[in-house]
Write a structure and sequence with these properties.
By secondary structure, the chain is mainly α. It has one domain. Helices cover about 70% and strands about 0% of the residues. It is built from five helices and no strands. The C terminus is likely disordered.
Length: about 180
């Protein structure tokens, strides 16, 4: 892994983790306040919605850079030699899908900014909801592109596990 990748992963993880912790703490506080003094936190839904967007989308680049995706390994054991090609193909498809999502998100965010849309309860500018979404999508697209062009020597742990599984890949002593 390049030297910058662990730093980017750590930054994305810290930002997403902070948003997740804030979301959990606000939820606990809301439940306690509602149960004890019947005074829930005003605008809780809007705050959780914003923090959820931060949690998911700011973690997206880290998931690509760490190669931490959910993997369905149906093909891996049937045709292990094709797995690297299929993984690169999946990475290219992911880049295209993320680029389209970022483009459409950008268009929607522009409309939100032009019309000064705000949330109903707390009047939070809706553009603030789009900032983590667009940062995460653009960062995720860049991370996916980086991973798609990485050298073949930087195989993922999934590819190594398939290649090293009994009856797959190389066999014999010294494998």
């Amino acid at each position: 892994m390049n030297r910058w990748r662990p730093r980017a992963v750590a930054l994305c993880g810290a930002l997403a983790g902070t948003a997740l912790a804030a979301m959990m703490l606000l939820t606990v506080a809301d439940v306690v306040l509602r149960a004890v003094i019947n005074r829930p936190i005003r605008g809780m839904f809007e705050l959780v919605e914003l923090l959820l967007a931060c949690t998911f989308f700011l973690a997206l680049p880290a998931a690509f850079l760490r190669d931490d995706h959910i993997v369905v390994d149906v093909v891996d054991y049937v045709a292990p030699r094709r797995v690297p090609v299929l993984r690169r193909l999946a990475e290219l498809v992911a880049i295209v899908i993320i680029a389209v999502m970022a483009w459409q998100g950008w268009k929607t965010a522009q409309g939100t900014l032009i019309f000064n849309d705000v949330t109903a309860d707390l009047e939070i500018p809706k553009i603030l909801y789009w900032v983590p979404v667009l940062v995460g999508l653009i960062g995720g697209g860049i991370a996916a592109a980086v991973m798609a062009v990485r050298p073949g020597s930087e195989r993922s742990r999934v590819e190594r596990a398939v290649a090293d599984a009994p009856g797959q890949g190389r066999s014999g002593p010294g494998r």
